[in-house]
Amino acid sequence: MWAEENVKNYGGDKENIHVCGDSSGGNFAAAVAAMSADRNGPGIRSQNLVYPLVTNWEEEKKDPLASPLLKEDIGRMPRTCIIAAECDPLVDQGLMYAAKLQDAGVEVEYHMMKGMIHGFLNWTYRSSFEAMDRIIENVNIIWEKTKQPSCRAVFVMRKKRNFFVNNMVVN
After folding, report:
1. Average pLDDT of every residue of the chain
2. Torsion of CA 6, 8, 12, 18, to 10 degrees
3. What is the pTM (predicted TM-score) of this model?
């Protein structure tokens, strides 16, 4: 996987890869975590999904990579943090995925952001920063368990949108 091969170029550690995505990016992050679990590596430490799309369009509903909710063997998935928006058409998908992961024995944190709509992470609402804090805390829980350095910086992609993250993870 590209991340495993190139993580050192960004000051990271191939033993501490975390995936994160919102909406269809959450679908992509869940698919990467599933492929990693199915192929025995690289080891994804956590998947962090924000209002994830986990059941895709009709023609893709038969493919568990396009619709992660369909994946049957999910017991090897990494620790998961799901952030949901209360007023989002995808809210039920995230809740069903969280329940399915928990039923399979996966550690799951589920956070419902009250009054928020789909895409709220892209705005400077207090809840946007609270959601990012929940994801950072999830990554830190992995670090506390392993005492290995995690990400050099979390949410680099948000810098491109002029976000200021007040809780940067630097180890």
Report:
1. 81
2. 20
3. 0.81
